[in-house]
Amino acid sequence: MKKRLCGAAAVLGVLVTAGALPAQASPGPQTSADAQQARHTLPLGPSGLTETRTTTTLQPGVTLTRIVRGEADAALHWTVEMSVPGGETSPDPDAPPTSLKDKASADALAAGLKRDGFEARVERVTTERTTDYAGGELGWRVRVGSFGSDAAANAERARLKTAGYTGSAWYTGWDGAATDRGPWRVEVLTIDPRAFHGSLSAAYGPDLEERETTSELAKAAGATAAVNGGFFVLDPKAGAPGDPAGVGVYDGRLLSEPVSGRPAFVFHDNARQSRIDRFTWKGEATARGTSLDLDGVNRVPGLIRNCGGSAHDAPTSLPLHDVTCTNKDQLVAFTPDFGKNTPQGEGVEAVLDSHDRVAEMRSPRGGPLPAGGSSVQATGKRVGELSGLARTGEALRLKTTLLDGKGKPVSPSPRTDVINGGPELVRDGKLHVTPATDGMVHPGDPSWYYGWVHKRNPRTLAGVDAAGRTLLVTADGRSTGALGLSIPETAEVARALGMRDAINFDGGGSTTAVVDGKVINRPSDAAGERPVGDALLVLPDKD
């Protein structure tokens, strides 16, 4: 067994200022990718900010680099941003509030606030261009006061509430201004396949429909390190909490269908040839030479989280992030990985045994599956289709096929996992930020883009550099001690770390980094570490 490297001998600390080149921070010969990562400080705040990097070797081929950039900024302050909370009836704590208005509406609101004795101001919000979004003016926001602490801002918020207004305490360091001096806190796991003898793996716990924390998933697998993974269902009204809201391939098996055309991170257990691709899929239920198209895999029929499903979904068949599209006529396949029971409700369910024979036609649908079995559920108009196809005692075969960005079938090996994400951040070493393509631009709702893309939040991202190394990165946020990143800043950071290709994972309160079973970052949820849908694990040496 290879000896685990730990302790002081495995740690290198580097102080970096603009123009300074840090010493090589990991053992072995320096590659061009090493040099690039060392040469570039993070492109956050003004040039010349102090940046410290401490690199620890966790096991052969795996390093953790902890980066702190900048310092507390006396120019930043607390305020109250006036809003109509968009997430008031949703349990999703990351739902952006409705904060932006047209100028006339913002002026009218500010005038009313001033009449009631509040120090209100109106501010224009513009956002930068990305690869597929023109940017420009998003709208106008209304803010009240300037305070030295969140307690003072929340006291003003309470006074506003008493007067009939709604707002939230807000730290101006989270706005995303290029002049902010920080601080930022970033954790970087680097897996070098040339020296790595462990394995990379995606984990979702005992079943798909339950959520576990990243640290629980890491401990259960004995992982050296881990980060949270893709987007997932959180609201029970949007499906089964914990179910991936996008593609999920685990040990080569497609257990969750793609949000059509959105990107995902593809990786193998040996950490070689990690990549980003865009996926679609097709699925069929076939009996006696007749086939029916499937609408989904391992999700509640009729509820399509993040949309991007079929042509008859409402309000759209295109990706639309954090929106649950609906369709009352669905055919959805299930494997035992979903949970103890398949979803209950009106419709019919063909339950298959381990030999793909129909063991039972269940109506209403929902219940346990036989050992090694599966099922397919139908709702609405598709009930008649399935009832006409499936016959008790006869074979009914379910087939799913993953299609790559060129529409070609993909057959992942048992050593391959795929985790959903979006938007893309870097492609071929160049900034390639795709919020419009990936559903992060909500028509008629600029506040959503403002809160999710434009503002700074905790972020998790993954990518690969020019040397073929896999990088897993978290950036803390939503505190005065760690400002977080906007999506454009996330892309800039990915490129500065040397990533050739990079993708955004689930962030906000989900952002978590774990080493040796312990959370090493500061998750932003008030309750602490958030249970998630899946995680990407770095497992110890195999021998």
Please give a structural write-up:
Helix content is 13%, strand content 36%. Strand 30 and strand 31 form a beta hairpin. The protein starts with 10 loop residues before the first strand and ends with a strand. Mean pLDDT is 92; it is low at 1-10, 17-38 and 85-89.
Regions with little confidence, pLDDT below 50 for 5+ residues:
1-10, 17-38, 85-89
Mind describing the biggest β-sheet? 9 strands, antiparallel
Strand order in the largest sheet: 1-2-3-8-33-32-34-30-31
Strand content: 35-45%
Multimer state: single chain
Coarse morphology = globular
Question: What can be said about this structure in brief?
Answer:
Helices cover 13% and strands 36% of the residues. By secondary structure, it is mostly beta strands.
Write the layout of secondary structure elements.
Layout: E1 11-16, H1 32-39, E2 51-59, E3 62-69, E4 78-82, H2 103-115, E5 120-127, E6 136-147, H3 150-162, E7 167-171, E8 184-191, E9 199-203, E10 212-213, H4 214-221, E11 225-228, E12 248-250, E13 253-256, E14 263-268, E15 275-278, E16 280-287, E17 290-293, E18 296-297, E19 303-307, E20 319-326, E21 331-334, E22 342-345, E23 348-352, E24 358-362, E25 365-367, E26 374-378, H5 382-389, E27 397-403, E28 409-410, E29 416-420, E30 424-427, E31 430-431, H6 446-454, E32 459-465, E33 470-475, H7 487-496, E34 499-504, E35 513-515, E36 518-519, E37 531-532, E38 535-539
Parallel strand pairs: 18-21
Antiparallel strand pairs: 1-2, 2-3, 3-8, 4-6, 4-7, 5-6, 8-33, 9-38, 10-37, 11-35, 11-38, 12-13, 12-29, 14-15, 14-29, 16-17, 16-27, 19-20, 21-26, 22-25, 23-24, 23-26, 27-28, 30-31, 30-34, 32-33, 32-34, 35-36
